Amino acid sequence: MFDGLPLLSLAIWVPIAAGVLVLLTGRDSSPGFSRWLALVGALAGFLVTLPLYTGFNATQSGMQFEEFSSWIPAFNINYHLGVDGISVLLILLTSFTTVLVVIAGWQVIQKKVAQYMASFLILSGVMIGVFAALDAMLFYVFWEAQLIPMFIIIGVWGGPNRVYATIKFFLYTLLGSLLMLISFIYMYHLAGSFEISDFQNLPLGMTAQILIFISFFLAFAVKLPMWPVHTWLPDAHVEAPTGGSVVLAAIMLKMGGYGFIRLAMPIAPDAAHALSGVMIFLSLMAIIYISFVALVQTDMKKLIAYSSIAHMGFVTLGLFIFNLLGFEGAVLQMISHGFVSAALFLCIGVMYDRLHSRLIADYGGIANSMPIFAAFFMLFAMANAGLPGTSAFTGEFTVILATMQANFWYAVLAATTLITGAAYTLWMYKRVVFGEVVNKAVATMEDLNGREILVLGLLAVAVLGMGLYPFPLTHVIQVSSHNLLARILQSKLH
Amino acid sequence: MIDMQNLYLLVPLAPMAGAILAGFLGRLIGRTGSHLVTILGVAISLAGSLFILNSVLHGHTFNGTVYQWMQIGSLKLQVGFLIDPLSAMMMVVVTFVSLMVHIYTIGYMADDPGYQRFFSYISLFTFSMLMLVMSNNFMQLFFGWEAVGLVSYLLIGFWYTKQSAIYANLKAFLVNRVGDFGFLLGIGLVLSTFHSLDYGQVFGQAQSMAAQTVSLIPGDPWNVMSVICILLFVGAMGKSAQFPLHVWLPDSMEGPTPISALIHAATMVTAGIFMVARMSPLFELSQTARSVVLVIGGITALFMGFLGVIQFDIKRVIAYSTLSQLGYMTVALGASAYPVAIFHLMTHAFFKALLFLAAGSVIIAMHHEQDMRKMGGLRKYMPVTYWTFVIGSLALCGIPPFAGFFSKDTIIEAVSLSTTPGAGFAYFAVLSGVFVTALYTFRMLFMTFHGKGRMDHHTQEHLHESPWVVTLPLVMLAIPSFFAGFVFIQPMLFGHFFGNSIYVAPSNNVLAVMGSHFDGIGGFIWEGVTALPFWIAIAGIATAWYLYIVNTALPAVIQKKSGWIYTILDHKYGFDEFNDWFFAGGARRLGKALWQYGDVSVIDDFFVNGTARVVSLGSRIMRLVQSGYIYHYAFAMIIGVFALISWFVHN
């Protein structure tokens, strides 16, 4: 039915076009129009990504829905798009999250509504571009382009300390990716094109691989973020508006993991093996060290930000133990964290909208005034603690099982998340939600409105659906993961 | 056969449906509607379970997949059911006790604003527990395992404004997570050893893997089966509250009494016992693991019993009693007497649920007073509660012909016959435990129901028997507390009830030895009353009678004289203090240190902002060079030319 339509181009450009339209037609006097237009744009953007899943042939290896046209012939740079099972899921996650963010910002954002909505729509298209690009230069352009809307989102609608946070965010990620560009140019000279698949097939010596891997590592480790280049994330989250945090946590962090999967590991497989010890060490540091740091946070957003870093540790851990179970577990963990972290940041947003505080100490006993909210928050808190039946379990469970196949003690260290994850999440939940009402402000907090129930309800369905029946997801990523892993396991040295 | 499979599905899904209806539509269908749908769901589930048990006894077992949960490579993870005598029996026990508790709750929670929520939770619990016992694979077992933990958390903290309750539920969840940590690692090791999480495949290969080793510390190979079994048992220690992970169970009494009966006595806490029995093909291959099980069980059985003797809160006495009884079951597992453990699990489910619900009935009558020092003489006012409580107490103390006598006596005998290292200690522990059990049980009975009333005048005036929704479950539970022992002992322990669902290696088969000289119920009782444990129990009861009926001033004197022993018991051996200081406090201190020194000082201040400072310092220095005076630049050029020439000349 959708044969012949450039679905990936639509997935990228529909939200961007909608964003531009919102920007052009937006008037401060009529924010309602901008909101509705943005919602239509976000829904349209979501709808055009659906055929990517329904039309995806899960048994076929190689890229699907490919589009190819020349862009800058002088350097053999092409507008080349295509997806495998892994990128399809990440694209769907992106377009889904965009719809949520637009709805979630409906009443909360009163200042520069059109610009706010437009930023997210444009950001959505650009991020889909990152997941769909098969040309390294195109990838790089999208990769850097996404910084701009996010920079604006935090810088304009952010908190009081937003300037420090935005600059830290921008410099960290920009510096990280500059070396990646150099690697691309180096490989272009060897391969004669910027095709990622050509890079993957490029025979590279060990020294070149190590250098290339390190350059990628800096870009992706910052993005993910991995310990110890993670400190920009808590600052960025604290200052970002709710929508910004949601997109940052749910999607932008995933690009780090995606970069390892698509670029770093297949291009430099021997380096990935040689450095796997370091990568596993850093992953376990994230899982253990960061969990203890999360435990003592007094700011809820910081707590969830640290928790995100710890959960991302499972992504790199799963990838760098080099077995299929771990590889797919890492992908599942990325998808799941998209739902769970989005939901938790939205929950904090709901409370912040009412009380204008993110500090745990300002809350207590909100179950009394907001029972429906408390129920949703409980579900997502439990998901964050990796409870079976929620999406987070599928990722963490598989990665821990996979790690056990590689090394008993790694698994022991990784499994501490069962205790620490529950400790920091549920301790926060206890202090915020349970107990007597601590002050008058909490007593007057109103329970969720219909719009908030809709947003959290959609995420609840996603979290439970993926937890109870992850088969449709593993089915889609099966062949792609198998192929990618086979490539990674094959040495480029002779 | 298609019909049977639908029935298997119906058993867990009926309470699930009840939970969803009461949970989401609670306000719409009202209080009556909520308890009707949930009771209906559990009743359907009980009827289905009974039907299934009957068909299982006629040889119709089942092992199959419901749906494919996930597939990664060749690893298929499924949701599926294993219906055999062990699971069918557990299903009946769970749904029966659950139904009784549902009915009881109508009375107990009558005035509570969270009425619908409570019914929703206990039905959700029933669903989770059924998924746990019906599972045919480790993944689903873990799902049920954590799901019952979740509901336990929700129910301990049911009164969420009460500080002690929300402290207790967090503690319970975290301590259980420590157990689950080991459990998950055990499952992981099962997968990496057997390449499957399906019971059938794992158990089928178990014998061939018996000698396989895993090198945890380089150069020091461990038997893989021992490691697996000990890790799995760590999970059981959490869920079944075995020393030293027992600390959460007494605090869980902060929850409403019906769930203390259902979750924290009869069903959930026995999940660990059930799990080890289910894993008998693995545990039979590791004597090391069974020794650990024996010793841990023995410690729990005896030392937790001591704590019951000094408690004044009626629910806490029963809670410590539960710990101690779980220790008995664990000892039975360690002695390879798995059927006995399950048998005691069943009889205990009946009489302990009965004791809890009867205590709840007392608590209602006392206007939510739980301190036994303010009770006494309730016998006159609450005859049904009293007599059912007596039946429960006699069963707990192991007085023939009540149910507990048969299960407890066989545990003691089984462990005396066991040759597994640690059996000697465990035998001593369970034998001494009999005296302690009788002492605390009858101390509780006498303090509550006998003697003079110590309550205030107002309470005394309003004392009356509880309504029928409360007393009916008591009577319904009293019946099996009386007869379950002598009716079921023969088929369950010495017959072929469990069939292939439990495996015992011939060299460990203590039950077969006992079965060879088992000569009917009458003979068993006769042997019982002429043996040591019975007289120890009688001595315990007599001691309780002397201390709490005859010479009531004496306990206070003993307490004063016993000095440090009393202090240790009063602090529950200091576990709570230690855990609070070392684990909870230690984690917070470590977190603060890592955050302040690691993240803030080293990474952010030194590296990140330090880099920024270096860059800005560098630019300030560079700015000095750009003075704008031609002669400065000319001078620099001359210096440069001079340096270059020197370099060329030098080479």
For the record, give the distance between the C-alpha atoms at the N and C termini of chain A, rounded to a whole number: 46 Å
Number of strands of chain B: 4
Strand content of chain B: under 5%
- Identify low-pLDDT runs of chain A: none
Helix content of chain A: over 70%
Please state the overall shape of chain B, judged from the principal axes of the Cα atoms: globular
Could you explain the architecture of this structure?
The complex is a heterodimer of chains A (494) and B (651). Chain A is built from 23 helices and 2 strands. Chain A has 494 residues and is mainly alpha-helical. In chain A, strands 1-2 form a two-stranded antiparallel ribbon. In chain A, helix 4 (113-132) runs antiparallel to helix 5 (136-145) and helix 14 (300-319) runs antiparallel to helix 20. The longest helix of chain A has 32 residues, at 324-355. Chain B has 651 residues and is mainly alpha-helical. Helix content of chain B is 75%, strand content 4%. The longest helix of chain B has 51 residues, at 575-625. The model of chain B has no long low-confidence stretch (mean pLDDT 88). Classes of the chains: A mainly alpha (494), B mainly alpha (651). At the A-B interface, helix 13, helix 15, helix 18, helix 19 and helix 20 of A face strand 1, helix 5, helix 6 and helix 26 of B.
List keywords for this structure.
heterodimer, A: two-stranded antiparallel sheet, 23 helices, globular, B: 651 residues, mainly alpha, two-stranded antiparallel sheet, 27 helices, 4% strand
Condensed summary:
The complex is a heterodimer of chains A (494) and B (651). Chain A is mainly α and 494 residues long.
